[in-house]
Design brief:
The complex is a heterodimer. Chain A contains 14 helices and 2 strands; from the N terminus they run ααααααβααααβαααα. Chain A is mainly alpha-helical. A two-stranded antiparallel sheet of chain A has the order 1-2. The longest helix of chain A is centred in the middle third of the chain and has 27 residues. The radius of gyration of chain A is 19 Å and the shape is globular. In chain B, strands 1-2 form a two-stranded antiparallel sheet. The chains are: A mainly alpha, B mainly alpha. At the A-B interface, α5, α11 and α13 of A face α4, α9 and α11 of B.
């Protein structure tokens, strides 16, 4: 009983805070934050746990979003089935491209993944313009049928649904962190030779991590699609490829709650700054450079080099049996 | 497909390949020597294009504009290297990628606030057409191709015949040893970065008359430049040359057959090559710090 509570209390606290925040903050903002945090979780897991830097997240986001959009625009009306299809599509794409990508060196992985994001952008904007309607996007808000219990068409109900999904995602990632597999992921980042020596297959560990992370991203994509009721190639635009990476680093690489904190800070800043200055790109770019440079100087505690983070984690887990506390 | 279309397609491919080569060489050199992935080369490309636009509008000569674009891109690269990259050489490769992406996005924001978001046309410097086996071919495209070859020859001579170039080549093999020999590696890095930036600026300036300059132009060629670098192998200049012209031809001839093929075919080629050789055609597997 006590052990279960220890395991859960960090998550319960974080998500209670999120519920409380719901009372004080406008609904669109909090919805955005929740979806964004799921979006970032995949990237954070890849970067912090497996050591892959993924600029290609928008590609998987688009896969999820477009799978949902196609279903809701052309075939059905049930948003839940749409989301399930989006997640399935994301998983399938990740399984197809995964074996090819994860055997690349980290520098090539980053380049190829970004190239994939750009290609998906072209694919959605130009090549498949017949069914994606190009830059106009697919509008299907009116196609979404109201469902019993939780009506996803209503922002208020959507928030409860998104909150539950996020809670499930976090519980899942926390479980991963504590499992043998999570330890293997860390090991493959730090020293793959030693892991191989212990009898684990680096390739399989990485592939599984890749699939898990990108399925999570696709989930975020399909939730975006249902929430906004429209999808356009804009979501996979190369200019936005850095978004999840920025949020990951802002929140703290590889930490469990980093993505939520980062999504809060980032969405908040975006809201405030874009009211003052129209040119959001400029701010995001220089923010990124600033974070990278400041991180080196240790202004932000969360931006320490990755291995230090891991040391800290080890210490925390040795003393506290959990390591929940490092938000 | 008739011969005229084919010839003009090949010429188009040669010119676009030349542009890709000039841009990719910067990425490749920076990776080879400094072990950074410098996505901001795409920013210097845009800067080169915009300076070409402004100078050709003011002075009336596109060639002067290209020259100015090249110089300004080099200066911007110098400033960025001194202010930002200097601090991240020591760190993991991925940090340089994130930081340079930040510079790229931020730089695009700056370009938007200076020149606005509307695409601007740049006049083609020479409208002369040559007759190549019964096909009228714009000379400007041939000049672009020739310039790319000249730059390759220049880089080759620089790296093989001058002492600084030899130091750079040695640095690509092993930076610590070069430093041990008493060569100022930090100055070498700066020089390489300026060369890379200036070449990207040259690419932007030369490309500007063929397309319109707009703030997103760097992001539009991003995928192609990546494919060139990946197919050729990071850090290899010969590989970059070969893959640049390969991708150029695939883009140009592919679009003659079926337009969307222009974007998809290089990507497919890249995937196939990575499947066979994960480090690209001429990339060395030993390039690990």
């Amino acid at each position: 009983m006590l052990k279960a509570w220890r395991w859960w209390w960090g998550i319960v606290l974080a998500f209670s805070l999120l519920l409380v925040a719901r009372v004080f903050l406008p609904l669109p903002f909090i919805n955005e934050v929740v979806i964004f945090s799921i979006y970032t979780m995949g990237c954070s897991f890849l970067l912090g746990r497996v050591g892959f830097i993924s600029f290609g997240q928008p590609a998987y986001l688009a896969v999820g979003a477009y799978a949902t959009a196609f279903y809701l625009f052309y075939y059905g009306t049930n948003p839940y089935i749409g989301i399930l299809l989006g997640v399935a599509a994301g998983g399938i794409v990740a399984v197809i491209v995964g074996p090819l990508f994860v055997r690349l060196r980290s520098d090539y992985f980053a380049l190829v993944n970004l190239a994939l994001a750009v290609i998906v952008f072209y694919l959605m904007q130009k090549v498949l313009a017949g069914i994606t309607h190009g830059d106009n996007g697919l509008w299907f808000l009116t196609n979404i049928a109201s469902t019993p219990v939780l009506d996803l068409g209503k922002p208020g109900h959507f928030f409860i649904f998104a909150w539950l999904v996020t809670l499930a995602v976090w519980a899942f990632y926390k479980y991963l962190d504590d499992s043998v597999y999570g330890a293997c992921c860390l090991a493959t980042k730090i020293n793959e030779d030693k892991l191989k020596f212990l009898g684990y297959d680096n390739f399989r560990i990485r592939l599984l991590a890749f699939v898990i992370a990108n399925t999570t991203t696709a989930l975020a994509g399909s939730m975006y699609a249902v929430y906004l009721g429209f999808v356009s190639p804009e979501i996979t635009s190369p200019a936005r490829a850095a978004d999840p990476v920025v949020v990951t680093i802002l929140g703290g690489v590889g930490t469990l709650y980093g993505p939520i904190v980062g999504a809060f800070a980032y969405t908040g800043m975006k809201d405030v700054v874009s009211k003052l200055i129209g040119n959001w790109e400029l701010i995001i770019g220089f923010l990124l450079v600033f974070i990278m440079l400041a991180g080196e100087k240790g202004i932000w505690g969360t931006l320490q080099p990755l291995f230090e983070k891991l040391l800290f984690r080890k210490k925390a887990s040795a003393t506290d049996d959990g390591a929940e506390v490092h938000r | 497909m008739d011969a005229q279309l084919l010839i003009s397609g090949v010429i188009f491919g040669l010119s676009i390949g030349g542009i890709f080569f000039l841009m990719a060489i910067g990425l490749s050199l920076c990776f080879g020597l400094m072990r950074i992935i410098s996505l901001d080369q795409l920013l210097y490309y845009s800067v080169g294009g915009y300076i070409t636009y402004s100078v050709s509008l003011a002075a009336g000569s596109v060639w002067l504009g290209v020259l100015a674009g090249c110089a300004v891109a080099g200066i911007v690269a110098f400033a960025v290297e001194r202010l930002i990259f200097r601090r991240i050489y020591e760190r993991e490769l991925t940090y340089s990628m994130i930081t340079s992406f930040g510079i790229l996005i931020g730089g695009i924001g700056v370009i938007k606030s200076i020149w606005g978001v509307v695409p601007r046309p740049v006049p083609v410097p020479t409208m002369i057409q040559w007759n190549v086996i019964g096909t009228e071919v714009p000379v400007y495209r041939l000049i672009v191709f020739a310039l790319a070859i000249v730059v390759y020859a220049g880089i080759w001579l620089f790296l093989n015949r001058t002492i600084i170039g030899k130091a750079i080549r040695a640095g690509i093999e092993d930076v610590e040893h070069v430093e041990g020999l008493g060569i100022n590696v930090s100055r070498l890095f700066t020089l390489t970065f300026i060369i890379a930036g200036a070449l990207s600026g040259l690419a932007g300036g030369l490309h500007a008359p063929l397309i319109m300059v707009d703030p997103q132009m760097g992001l539009e060629v991003l995928a192609f430049v990546f494919m060139v670098v990946i197919i050729g192998g990071l850090g290899s200049i010969k590989g970059t040359l070969i893959s640049a012209f390969l991708v150029g031809q695939v883009v140009s001839l592919g679009s003659l057959i079926y337009a969307p093929l222009a974007q998809m075919a290089p990507f497919a080629i890249m995937l196939v090559i990575l499947l066979i050789k994960p480090t690209g055609l001429y990339g060395s597997a030993l390039l690990k710090r």
